[in-house]
Amino acid sequence: MEILRYAVYRFGTMLLTLLVVSVMVFAIINLPPGDYLSNQIAELRASGQSAGVAKAEFLRSEYSLDRPLYQQYLIWVGFMPGPHGFSGLIQGNYGWSFEFDQPVADIVGDTLWLTVLVNLAAVLFVYLVALPLGVIAAARSRTWVDYTSAFVGYLGLATPNFLLALILFYYGHKYFDLPIGGLMDPIYEGEPMSWDKVKSILIHLIVPTFVIGTSGAAAMMQRLRANLLDELGKPYVETAVAKGMAPARMLTKYPLRMAFNPFVADIGNLLPSMVSGSVLVSVVLGLQTIGPTLLTALKTQDLFLSAFVLMFVALLTLIGTMISDVLLVLLDPRIRYEGRET
Amino acid sequence: MTQLPDGRYVNDAPFDAQASLQQLERRDLDAPNWVLIWRQFKTHKLGLISGIFLLISYLMLPFAGFIAPYTPNERHPDHLYSPPQSVNWFHEGTFIGPYVYPMTSEANLETFQWEFVPDTDNPAPLEFFCTGKKYRLAGLIPTKTHLFCAPKDATVFLWGSDRLGRDVFSRILYGAQLSLTVGIIGITVSFLLGITFGSIAGYFGGRIDWCINRVIEILRSLPELPLWLALSAAVPSNWGPVAVFFIISVILGILDWPGLARSVRAKFLSLREEEYVRAAEMMGASPGRVIRKHMLPNFMSHLIASATLSIPAMILGETALSFLGLGLRAPAVSWGVMLNDAQNLASIEIYPWTAIPMLPIIIVVLAFNFLGDGLRDSLDPYQH
């Protein structure tokens, strides 16, 4: 039951972290002078359209943008009653997007699931690629296998992934007839889930997954290789070899398991950078994830929309990190629950 | 020398452990640290080459205007999207020095593209130390002399020209000035923050440590790019390019420090138990002095190595931000701003040379990685 207690404790810290993050996000969003509505009001006044001004003024008080900042924050999160009682993130009201003139929930809608999907696929890709390559690179260290994988890995780390995305898309389309842009065929958009739609999404996922995952996989591979090499130098490996254990079995039986811990723990470092990558790549490739929405929202100072997207992205990484922490404890009983603090 | 029964010879002199140390090693024991580090670093060939390359690149920055044949925003309306021109040495079998063929552009009304025809009959030799557009050497001295420039009635676009007919090669040189310094400024900010917070947390421990540690954890668990985007969206659009440049570098640094602070803190936690730290404290040294004079120098070299390894992230960060249009903006020239032009598939397919700025980015990032690896490997000279 120790593990359950730890999971609950970890969940609690995640919620606290999320709270701090929400304050930070709200502060950052409000950094630029002015907001969407006051910009709009000024614009309307300048062109002499008083009807629009009245509407904007109404929205201002409706979303309590005329109150002090800390009250705006509390209302937004749902700690304080707004004009319509408690109605904030906690109560499931994500706010109103002024730019699109729609509730935020309607705009983000599907894109949330697709964002999760894209990132999940990328994480899977990282593990599937990094695990075998890292092991082979370590087992055959200082051979051409090792050097090639190191070279490819370095290249993956050094290429800006948005460019990699463009180039892969171009060649993927040219030689493998992979579709360009988007996450599904336009005909499936807004359609209910069906087998064909799933297939279309999967095909569209190939290039984005590859692009988002490459740098993460490269980093992960190098770390796994280093860990494994450390383990391989230890006396118990020598003993196993001396006793005539088959190399493959020797490798998987002990050293791999030892080297595996950092592999799981690393997702905490990996996930933030992958989510970053997915935002960037989505913008370049026009994927229907949350990335492009974030960019427009930030550029137009669409307060609630950008705040929500940032919160969602943060939540995604925090949940991922939490899961990896709990998994790590499950995998390795030697890790003491309180010991992870230092 | 005695002969054993089995025929081998054995030296009678008693074994002297000191003598078995080689002459070289004994000198090593007295050599200053940096000599040992340098000696070790030299064996890391890739790191050495990368270091030299980076040194040359940075030294070149003030002279970018001199090397570039054009100024960054000089337009050639007749040569939009001109492909790269090659510099030749031999014309019809005779050596006439470096020259280019003048290009004339024609509009192809079927594809709506400019087509460029080299005039192979009139080779135009390049001019050296010639007079071109005015620029400021190192940003200070106004001058007109360029290392080489195009002959009269011809152009020299080594890496082609972009959609406004600006020379990509010259722009890359000018872009390096911003793109390469972004990392340096960013790392300085992150270094200062990281060392300050890390050492405070590690030295004092207790409640301060707890607070700083939570902040580090929170910042590290957040995706960087969306926060970069949000912060740089907050930069007022009426600021000048230089101000934007500085604020962007600072933003990059602000989100980078937690990683550094973490390693500083861990190191401090172990170092503060050492005798010499306690001795300094007992003699009445203030915490600031103990940190700066006694503890930091211990692993400064280690910090420099890890800083080297995090510069690439900043360079890539600046590129990404500018690429998305939230970083540096148009009159400023950086590699990211240039790539902004190559954002669509059309430019990759039809005008691939507009994506050339990615090459210097990749090379510089790789070089920093190799240099960092080399430094890290050579920092513990006593270990080998």
From TrEMBL, chain A:
InterPro entries: BPD_transp_1_N, MetI-like, MetI-like_sf, RhesusRHD. It is a multi-pass membrane protein. Keywords: Cell membrane, Membrane, Transmembrane, Transmembrane helix, Transport. The chain crosses the membrane at residues 7-29, 112-139, 151-171, 201-221, 263-287, 307-331. One of its GO terms (cellular component) is plasma membrane. It is found in: Cell membrane. Gene3D superfamilies: MetI-like (1.10.3720.10). Residues 112-328 form the ABC transmembrane type-1 domain. One of its GO terms (biological process) is transmembrane transport. It comes from the Bacteria. PANTHER family: INNER MEMBRANE ABC TRANSPORTER, OLIGOPEPTIDE ABC TRANSPORTER, PERMEASE PROTEIN. Belongs to the binding-protein-dependent transport system permease family. This is ABC transporter permease. It comes from Parasedimentitalea marina. The lineage of its organism: Bacteria, Pseudomonadati, Pseudomonadota, Alphaproteobacteria, Rhodobacterales.
